[in-house]
Amino acid sequence: MDLKQRKLNKAEWESIEVPVSQQEIEVLKLIIDGYKNVNVKNNNNNSIFTFLKIEYTTKMEDYLYTKYFQAQVDKIEQVVKTLYNDYKPIQVDSNVQIKSADKIRLERNDDAVLKKQDIYENVLLQHSDKMVRSKKDQNDRLFTFHYFTLYKLRRNSVKGINRHVSGLLDSLLEKFSDCVDMSVVIENAVEFIEKNSSLLKYSDMVLYEHQKEIFTACKNRNPKLILYMAPTGTGKTLTPIGLAESHRIIFVCAARHVGIALARAAISVNKKVAFAFGCASATDIRLHFSAAKEFTKHRKSGGVGKVDNSVGDDVEIMICDIKSYLPAMYYMKSFNSDEKLIVYWDEPTITMDYKEHEFHEIIKKNWSENLIPNMVLSSATLPKYNELDQTIPDFKDKFRGAEVYNIVSHDCKKSIPIVNKSGYVVLPHYLSSSYDEIMKIATHCENYLTLLRYFDLNEVVKFIAHVKPMVSSKMAFERHFETLDDINMKNIKVYYIKLLQNLTGVDWTTIYNTFMKNRAPVILANNSIDTKGNKTTVAQAEGTAGVYVTTKDSHTLTDGPTIFITDEIEKIAKFCIQQANIPSIVMDDLMKKIEHNNILNDKLNNLENELEYIKEQAESTMKNSVSAVNSGVKVQGRSKSTKDFKKINRDTEENSGASKGEISKITNEMNSIRSMIKQATLNDTFVPNKHHHIEKWAQGFDTMNAFTSNISDEIVNEIMLLNGIEDSWKVLLMMGIGVFINHDNIKYTEIMKQMADEQKLYMIIASSDYIYGTNYQFCHGYLSKDLNLTQEKLIQAMGRVGRNNIQQSYTLRFRDDQQILKLFTADTEKPEIINMNRLFSSTF
User: Of 82, 94, 258, 406, whose CB is crowded by the most CB atoms within 10 A?
Assistant: First the structure.
């Protein structure tokens, strides 16, 4: 995480111009629309009408039904009749006539419709067919799966579903409703919910509940302090784009990459943004050209040329760092009423785990001198309402009539299991044999429901099924899940906590011993091969957290990139290279090439500096010449003309020594040196999860979803040409591994960010500074045993994993089990609370 309070560099300016994906634009549009209507639903899946793009009429609907769906429906209804004699089939006129032109058009699309199996009506009919057949075969589990899936799919807002197919579905759901056993749904929740591809693929896009709440709260015209706590990866940092529909936003972020990511998203949907980074005063604020109201036009392109940054009437979102908040505040106040402004402070707990930090004085000053009466404090680990006993009264005292909104969300749409150093999934019921201790842990989980995200659903439902006969009738399924609408991942996990709390001390010892005895590792130790790559005959008995990430455990890292968080970057980097078992002869050759390239880099760097100096001198001389012309200096008793101006330019260039010949000479020399750069590559045997690597290290294991890197030779060569980069990092890059650390070479960091964003890296080794706001998609995460993090920072670190919009195989692998215990302990030290109250207060 880059906490340097500096201006944006060229690479950062360029990065915000890269549009986000079309999928993300759809999400952003939903957020924008959702501000006006918090119950908005979008679903881009195709019904037969939307697929064919044909005008709707009831006659056309009847025709499409008889042409494409009736044969499927007839087969389904024949099965239903064998189960229910009183079933009344759907009646549709099969002789309906349509225009000849429409008929010809449909015939042309016949093949496309038949091949398009994910037309929504086809999906509904496929599940209907399987549901009735499994009921006929008395396969209760399969019947319940398809009934539950249909029940959920029927509630989606796909446009233009054929009314006859909808009628069939409604009839079947009502007919079979009494046959559904909800306990079957809950005990098979992994298959029915978490891994149900139909539910994942065809679901509606809707706002998160916390977004609905904050949009509603911000429509209140009174002064307000909003405590906004929601899990990572649930859209908190995109929420300002929706708020900007009727407000002007000052987005404050300590981590600049978060602000840059927001800017990129905002610009992609035509929001007007400005930047206050490293500002000493408002004169340092810079407008994106789309927010510019006054500007000169570019002479050649006709586009925006020089922007007048002092005119910010059109700015919708001001993005600023901690240092620049007050200049940004005064700037935005000069163009907007206080009522219209909202300060959106992202991750205010950053640096709050330190007793002293250089930011603390700035934060204190920002809060004390703040004049804007609408403030949002947004974080996944924000202290609770009752814990901010100085901050809240201070805000209410400063802004009379202020209301405080406490928005706390625990959206839980995926499972990201915690895995200990021995390769076992961790859940509260595995943590202690002591009944009293387990009650404390259960209460802590109830108070911090953000932990639900890290409960493995498979282990949860196994526990529920096991203890079901031991609990009282008040804990029966029917008391907690009245309808299928109530059955979702979050509610099942909450139910698990309630079951824990309602067990007796007499039962607990037996339950604990049973689960510990039958516990099996989810990550098996790969004992079929030793750390040198030699075959062994050791049985696969014990588990492991899979620490050999570059060799025999790499196949366990599936679906997407991995982040390895550590404060000992060099140690982990060295370990990864050592364990790769690259033969000494190969490594020696590699290091010789790197050293050769380093020498060339030094020469290139000197030439680049020389060329830059020459160009700067030429530019300085040119500016002086222009200044002389513009000031009307006399030449032999007359004002300078255009000819004089051109002559001065020629003379200046010649006299300064910056002749084209000299620049060309240096450029040619640089190109010559670049041509001498030696290509440094590694055989695929040493690149995790490449084909030859898997053949060596993971024979006999399931490697279908093993994830590997995709780094081009051009990127490797580009890294080789960078100065100040550790040789070990260059070797790691060839293995598909990047490094995130605060580094002077911004170019390296930007390349790593780009590859992380494009998911081209197999793994990123990152310092704990990067636990806030890295919005890259990681499927697995390691927390090194060298880390010493507070409970809040542990949760932030864990939040880097599972940010995808889909459910994949995720794991959080802890190298120190004591860190896991810290997560589930209520009385752990929380410096963030002390510092928040101390710094977010006007009293000194």
Answer: 258
Q: Any bridge partners for residue 344, and if so which?
A: 251, 376
Q: Give the CA distances from residue 199 to residues 152, 195, 235, 317, in Å, rounded to whole numbers and listed in that order.
A: 7, 9, 21, 36
**Residue owning tokens 């529909």:** 245
- Can you read off the two tokens belonging to residue 182? 């909800």
The model's pTM is 0.85
Q: What is the pLDDT of residue 301?
A: 60
* Residue tagged 């898997």 (tokens): 694
Gap between the Cα atoms of 233 and 291, Å rounded: 28
List pLDDT tens digits, range 241-293.
999 999 999 999 988 888 988 999 999 999 999 999 999 999 999 999 888 88
- HEC profile of 301-365: CCCEEEECCCCCCCCCEEEECCCCHHHHHHHHHCCCCHHHEEEEEECCCCCCCCCCCHHHHHHHH
Question: Residues with Cβ < 8 Å from 196, sequence gap 6 or more?
Answer: 145, 149
Amino acid at 34: G
Could you give the CA distance from residue 455 to residue 770 in angstroms, rounded to a whole number? 24
Per-residue pLDDT reduced to its tens digit, 103-161: 888 887 777 776 677 899 999 999 999 999 999 999 999 999 999 999 999 999 999 99
Domains and their CATH numbers in the chain: 10-38+207-295+309-408 (3.40.50.300), 48-203 (no CATH), 426-518 (no CATH), 554-582+683-820 (3.40.50.300), 601-626+640-675 (no CATH)
Angle (nearest 5°) at CA 197 between 196 and 201: 125
| CA-wise closest residue to 325 among 285, 268, 374, 383 | 285
CB 658 within 8 A of CB 631: no
Q: Which amino acid is at 729?
A: W
Nearest to 781 by CA among 459, 523, 560: 560
Residue recorded with tokens 């492991």? 544
Residue pair 694/706 in contact by the 8 Å Cβ criterion: yes
Contact status, residue 144 vs residue 182, Cβ threshold 8 Å? no
CB–CB of 247/342 below 8 Å?
yes
CB atoms within 10 A of CB 550: 26
Closest CA to 251 of 259, 260, 243, 239: 259
| Spatial separation of the C-alpha atoms in residues 529 and 51, rounded to whole Å | 53
Cα separations (Å) of 606 from 603, 610, 637, 668, 670?
Answer: 5, 6, 45, 14, 10
